[in-house]
Each structure stands twice: as structure tokens, then as C-alpha cells.
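**Fold in C-alpha cells:**
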Amino acid sequence: MTLRIASANRFDNTVAAIEQRQSDLAQAQLQLSSGKRITQPSDDPTGAARAERAYIAQQRLDAAQRSVATSQSAMSLAESALGSANDILQTARQTLVAAGNGSYGAGERAALVSQLQQMRSQLLSVANQTDGGGGYIFGGQGSTGEPFADGLGGVSFVGTPGQTGLSAVEQIPTTVDGQAIWLNARSGNGVFVSAAAAANTGQAWIDAGGVSNPAALTGSSYDIVFSVSAGSTSYSVLKDGAPTAATGVAYKSGSAIVVDGQSLHISGQPADTDHFSLTPSTPILDPFSALSRAIAALGNPSANGGQVLQAVNSGLRDVDAVMSQVQSARSQAGAALTRLDQMSQRNSDKTLWAKTLQSSAEDVDMVQAVSDFQSKQTSYSAALQSYAMVQRMSLFDYLK
């Protein structure tokens, strides 16, 4: 049986083959020029789905990285500002030490007081420093104006206490709690506060003291009251206003006085009825009030030597406490920056992984693509030549 194939059928098949090879060549050319193996989901539904998931993962990581960058900026500004505050406080401490020079008179102390006033103003400027974006570094959870206001009663926080943060994979801070940093240092030596009564007329002063026996601490308030009679000086200790067994104790300048686990030294010569107090420490100390008290005491031209030394000792104790608070806050900001750097690195690694996954799903192998393009170009050329030959194969050609 002989199968007859009409000329029209041969033409149609050849044209269809040419069109198919032309389509294949165009697809290969598109992949080669775009670098993408998948130009539309129908090319590879599974691969397109994998590429889409990888792309969405990148978008999420980009959003997380923007949060990290915001936090890094805030923590960097806070760390830098706290470093400036620490430098100012260190200079203030040196100025207080200089004020204790026994050879200085009221004029020299007045010059030092002027320097302390400038440092107090500088500290307030640092506390009210802006973040460059319309906010304040130490504004807490928000502040419409400068978060720290200086009034007759001292510096107060007028912002919203607390700290704001962003939640990515983990909570990250975007502000710092200015009130906790600047106004909540523990007073005294951190356990108790030693102070001289404002009405004292003698030339004695008390140091910051320390804890000699933590188990003996009671949390009560104490008064050490002096009595001077016939050239003999003694003191009595009152606990919450009531007499204790320590009554009429002979006083020796500079000797240690131990009161229920609290050890302290009183030096100089007290006057009759002079008294010193010991009260529990509280988190209410701030650098502004500490400097204000030192400025007021050192700026008094009629202050005697004991009052000057008391102002210097109390000022140094308070400045040291505030510096410890500032340094602690700065360390926390530094630790936050270290954690943020690690998060940033992890985000970068995950983004690289997602991009690699997306590339493996949708990108074309260029070597293979070039080879396929050349192969399909050859096939297309062969199809054209075949069509040219088929077109000449007709009865009329044989009848010529």
C-alpha cells in the first residue's frame, strides 16, 4: 500500500516546524538576554513558587534590617552623648578636687564655681540633645519638647518615661529612658547617705562611708549628735530619733565610727550640738542637683574650712555615683550596639541565602543557555533550508 503525501501537507508541516523552532529560538534569546530561566510562572510553576518564597523572605529581611539600622542609629547617638557626659563629669570632679585646696580663698573658689556652673549647663545640653530626626535622644517614649526642664526646684523630666522598641525577630530599642539615666542614680554611697546638718557651726566634715557588715544593716535613719563641754568632745548616736547604747562616746578626729554595719569617718572639730545624719540611699540622685549643691556651698564666701571640705567630699561622692550611673548606661548602649551588629550580620547572611535560593530557582545557567541558543539557532537555520528545498519540490519543476 502506497501512502500519498500531498504537497500542501508537506508545506504545512515544514512551516509549523519553522514556527516552532523560531519560538524556541526566541525563548532561548529571551533567557540569554534577561539571565532568567523563568520569565513567567508557566515556564516552571514549581521553580516560580520557590523563587517567590525566596523573594518574600528577602523583603522581610530588608524590613528587619531597616529596624536594626534605626536602632543602631539611636544607640550610637546615645552612646556618644553619654561619653560626652562622662567627660564633663570627670572634669567637674577634677574641679571639685581643686576646690578642696586649703590655700584657696573665696576668690579662687568663685572662679571654680563659675566653671562648675558652665559644666552643669553643658550637661543639660547633652541631656536635651536631639536625634536629628525631630526627636530627643533621651526623650524616653516621646517628648514634644526638650525632655529636661530646669526650674526653681531643679531639673525635672517632662517627657514620657520608659523606652520604645521595635519587634523584629527579637525586641530592639529605638530610644533610651532619659529619666532613669539622668535622674535616678542612687544617692550617697549606694547604701546610705551621710550628710552634715546645714545648721552646723563647727569645722568638722563626714566622708561617704561604707558598709562594714552587710548583715547588720537595718535600713533605719541615724543621727550623730556632738556635745562639747569643758574642752571635751563626745557624740551620741540616735536611731530613728531614739537614743542607742552609743551615748557620750569620746570623739577622735578621723577615727572610724561604726553604726549597725555602717562605717564612716568624721574629721575636724565639731561644735556643740552639731550633728550628722545617716539615711538609707534612694534612687533620686541627678548630676544637676549634685553640682547645684556643690556650687551653693563653695560659692558661700563665709564658709569655713570644714564646710568647704564637706562640700567637696559630698560633691565628689555624688559625682562618682552619677558617673557610675552614666557609665552603666553607656555600657548598656554599647552592649546593644554589639547585639545589633550581630543581628545585622545574621540578616546579611540570611539575605544572601535567600538570594542564592531565588537565583538557583529562576536564573539561567549562562554556559548552558549559550549552548542551547546556538543549538536552536542551528535547528532554525536547518528548518529554513529544508523549507526552501521542499518549496522547490513540485510537479511543475519536473515538467520544465
In short: The mean pLDDT is 85. The chain has eight helices and 14 strands.
